[in-house]
Amino acid sequence: MKSFAYVRAGSVQEATEAYAAHPGARYLGGGTNLVDLMKLGVERPAALVDVTRLPLDGVEELPDGGLRIGAMVRNSDLAAHPAVRDRYPALSQALLAGASGQLRNAATTGGNLLQRTRCPYFQDLTKPCNKRMPGSGCGAREGVHRDHAVLGHSALCIATHPSDMAVALAALDARVELYGPEGARTLPADRFHRLPGDHPERDTEIRPGELVTGVVLPAATAGPPSLYRKARDRASYAFALASVAAVLHTQDGVVDRVGIAFGALAHRPWRARRAEEALLGAAPTAAAFEHAVDLELAAAEPLRDNAYKVPLARRLALDVLGRLAPPATP
Amino acid sequence: MGSQPHDGSGHRTAAADRHHSDTTLRVNGKPHTLTVDHRRVLLDLLREDLGLTGAKKGCDHGQCGACTVLVDGRRVNSCLLLAVALDGCEVTTVEGLAGDGEELHPLQRAFLERDAFQCGYCTPGQICSAVGALAEAAAGHPSHVTDPATPSGEPVPLGREEIRERLSGNLCRCGAYPRIAEAVEDVIP
């Protein structure tokens, strides 16, 4: 590992100033991904600005019924928070479906959003990877790509985003709060991560020096609000092969609010806007769910070895939507 | 990448500079101030600087759990934590679980009684992880398999399925899982 300077920031202002003062700096949260990538040589920061002791470790009720989650709230604490468990169960379930108890105790909300793909070519310095080294090529496209993207990939990159949490945030219409040299701003969670396009080296819309300071959840709807379901190779402690988070609300027998996001299918959590449009105003029937999900997944462009993801994601989505729908009246 | 003790003994050769910082950790109740290379992870500091070889280096990438220790009472992978970032923290390793009179921790006793290991390499991590997992369940932390209807904030009852899920971050290549789960079950209050 390359030597680096270390700065512990006491305030958000101090953190962004330290970042600006140290070219090649990275912010350090729980470090569960960054330190690993430093060991692998994928990340070689000249300085780490430690933001774990910033006063961003609280979960706060908002006047409009929403919730603000500080960027330094640990994944395990967020999953256990009573307001999250009661009003945003998909978020709690997604967090608990990710990583291990030890990793969730260290990983932060902000760091979870900023974790890098687990594509083996990205993590291996001896292999080509346009995300790690733009212009070097993509080893995965013709290589090992069973875990890779089926939606929204580009000629340059077929990596997926590994977060479970981010999938729930996308479905729940969360917003990501940022602070940087140009001040504070927010981005919708489902637009925080990018599709790879011509610049797979850029995972997110974050600007240089910007720090994730929090995540805001809008007021939750009443009723059985949201669910997360994940398919993986082993029963626990594995990244998703496909996952889905959904929120569904009906009024007078028709869907009046719906949010659906897929995980592990694309370079970002895949908000299923086409499916949602098809469902709004429709009766929440199995046939309507099938029509909507098929409409969304028609855009899939599977690779040689990952076509299984499309029917897998379809079944996950139909199961989750079916369980969120109110029981049919006889 | 070593660390130098900062005990006024006159043997210190390194000093805090751009790539080193003075860092104080309480490990198993004893304070240690060291000048650490910023690259030093907690696992290497424990094993190589303090001679506490209980926590093991398995994968060194946070995938196997052999390095699990408790930091401020929470279980973590010590291979992924930079020591410099832990300044002021309280660390408990498997060596610190036993009482002052060398009385073994109930989980250590249960592992012996259940013969919950073969090669033993993952055992310190399994035991520290189980200590942390029991505290999390007692504090009402749910797991992936907890019934969502379980009330928030109340202790989560631990059956076999809960134990297996909560310890899934600790791999055992010998496959001693059934007895590990039995040992943990034995100490559930």
Descriptive report:
The complex is a heterodimer of chains A (330) and B (189). Chain A has 330 residues and is α+β, with helices and mostly antiparallel strands. Among the domains of chain A are: 5-50, 2-Layer Sandwich (Uridine Diphospho-n-acetylenolpyruvylglucosamine Reductase, domain 2), CATH 3.30.43; 226-324, 2-Layer Sandwich (Enolase-like, domain 1). Chain A is 28% helix and 20% strand. Chain A is built from eleven helices and twelve strands. Chain A has helices spanning 12-21, 34-40, 75-80, 82-87, 89-97, 101-106, 109-114, 165-171, 273-279, 286-297, 309-324; strands at residues 5-8, 25-28, 47-50, 59-61, 67-70, 175-180, 183-188, 211-217, 226-231, 242-251, 254-263, 270-271. In chain A, the strands form three sheets. Chain A has a five-stranded antiparallel β-sheet with strand order 4-5-8-6-7. In chain A, strands 9-10-11-12 form a four-stranded antiparallel β-sheet, with helices on both faces. In chain A, strands 1-3-2 form a three-stranded parallel β-sheet, covered by helices on one side. In chain A, a hairpin with a 5-residue loop joins β4 (59-61) and β5. In chain A, α10 (286-297) runs antiparallel to α11 (309-324). The longest helix of chain A has 16 residues, at 309-324. The radius of gyration of chain A is 20 Å and the shape is globular. The N and C termini of chain A lie far apart (65 Å). Chain B has 189 residues and is of the alpha+beta class. Chain B folds into two domains: 3-96, Ubiquitin-like (UB roll) (Roll), CATH 3.10.20; 106-186, DNA polymerase, domain 1 (Orthogonal Bundle), CATH 1.10.150.120. Helix content of chain B is 26%, strand content 16%. Chain B has five helices and six strands; from the N terminus they run βββαβββαααα. Chain B has helices at residues 42-49, 106-114, 123-138, 160-166, 177-186; strands spanning 3-5, 20-27, 30-37, 68-71, 74-77, 90-92. Chain B has a six-stranded mixed β-sheet, with helices on both faces. In chain B, a hairpin with a 2-residue loop joins β2 (20-27) and β3 (30-37). In chain B, α2 (106-114) crosses α5 (177-186). Chain B is globular, with a radius of gyration of 18 Å. The N and C termini of chain B lie far apart (43 Å). The chains are: A alpha+beta (330), B alpha+beta (189). The A-B interface holds A 1, 3-6, 8, 28, 31-32, 35-36, 38-39, 48, 50, 52, 76, 79-80, 82, 85-86, 89, 92-93, 96-97, 99-103, 105-106, 235-237 and B 1, 18-19, 21, 37-39, 41, 60-62, 65, 68, 74-77, 80-82, 84-85, 87, 129, 132-133, 136, 139-144, 146, 148, 152-153, 164-170.
